[in-house]
């Protein structure tokens, strides 16, 4: 069983994906980490984020075991990943790695922004997780505060809106729900309620 979970930043898709993967005993891939890791290489090398050639080289050099998630989290890395992820050549370089992950014998759970539309259009279950920008900004503020990072809500909301626009308007694999995806709005749901709603969607598709 392949479960594709897409959605904008701070919608809850990552947490839902991890919970579903654990529930069903399936491997999970947060594909956003691929773009964060690519951006991290450029930052560590002192290379401009808009250097396409260097970004593609960094993407091709990644391995799924390379990720130090602590270094890939935070507001700066989220913004950097969005810049790198808008490059068609970078997305093309990372497609094969993501598609190989879906070939696990038992299946897989993947979350990102183009799983149901590009990476795994054959997925058995497709869920598009969304929430209002204000709710997502509040969630991100709490997350950053928990990491000890400075938090200004207005700036975070502006970042969320900017990322949404960039992700939706990019020429390659823009953020959008697959035609056969089930929309899950988590604006008024806590994580437990969101997980139960997602689980119900999966069970309905399976049954």
Strand content: 5-15%
* Count of DSSP-assigned helices: 10
CATH class annotation: Alpha Beta
Strand-and-helix sequence, N→C? EHEHHHHHEHEHHEH
Rg, nearest Å: 16 Å
Overall average residue pLDDT = 93
Strands, count: 5
Amino- and carboxy-terminal Cα gap: 12 Å
Biggest beta-sheet profile: 5 strands, parallel
In which range does the helix fraction lie? 55-70%
Question: What structural class results from the helix and strand content?
Answer: alpha/beta
CATH topology: Rossmann fold
Number of domains: 1
| Spans where pLDDT lies below 50 across 5 or more residues | none
What general outline do the C-alpha atoms trace?
globular
- Biggest sheet strand line-up: 2-3-1-4-5
CATH architecture descriptor text: 3-Layer(aba) Sandwich
CATH H-level name... which superfamily?
A: P-loop containing nucleotide triphosphate hydrolases
Give an overview in words.
This protein has 10 helices and 5 strands, in the order E-H-E-H-H-H-H-H-E-H-E-H-H-E-H. The protein is globular and about 50 Å long. The protein is 56% helix and 11% strand. Helix 2 packs across helix 3 and helix 3 runs parallel beside helix 6. The protein has a single domain, classed as 3-Layer(aba) Sandwich (Rossmann fold), CATH 3.40.50.300. The protein has a 5-stranded parallel β-sheet. The protein is an alpha/beta fold and 207 residues long.
């Amino acid at each position: 069983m392949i479960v594709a979970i897409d959605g904008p930043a701070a919608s809850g898709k990552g947490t839902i994906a991890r919970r579903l993967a654990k529930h069903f005993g399936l491997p999970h891939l947060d594909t956003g980490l691929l773009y964060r890791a690519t951006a991290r290489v450029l930052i560590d090398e002192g290379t401009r984020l808009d250097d396409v050639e260097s970004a593609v080289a960094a993407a091709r050099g990644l391995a799924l075991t390379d990720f130090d998630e602590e270094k890939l989290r935070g507001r700066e890395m989220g913004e950097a990943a969005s810049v790198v992820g808008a490059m068609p050549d970078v997305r093309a370089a990372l497609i094969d790695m993501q598609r190989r992950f879906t070939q696990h014998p038992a299946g897989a759970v993947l979350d990102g922004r183009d799983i149901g539309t590009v990476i795994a259009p054959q997925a058995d279950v497709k869920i598009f997780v969304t929430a209002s920008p204000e709710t997502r900004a509040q969630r991100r503020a709490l997350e950053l505060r928990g990491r000890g990072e400075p938090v200004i809500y207005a700036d975070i909301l502006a970042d969320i809106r900017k990322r949404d626009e960039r992700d939706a308007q990019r020429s390659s694999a823009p953020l959008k729900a697959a035609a056969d995806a089930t929309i899950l709005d988590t604006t008024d749901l806590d994580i437990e309620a969101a997980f139960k709603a997602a689980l119900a969607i999966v069970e309905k598709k399976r049954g």
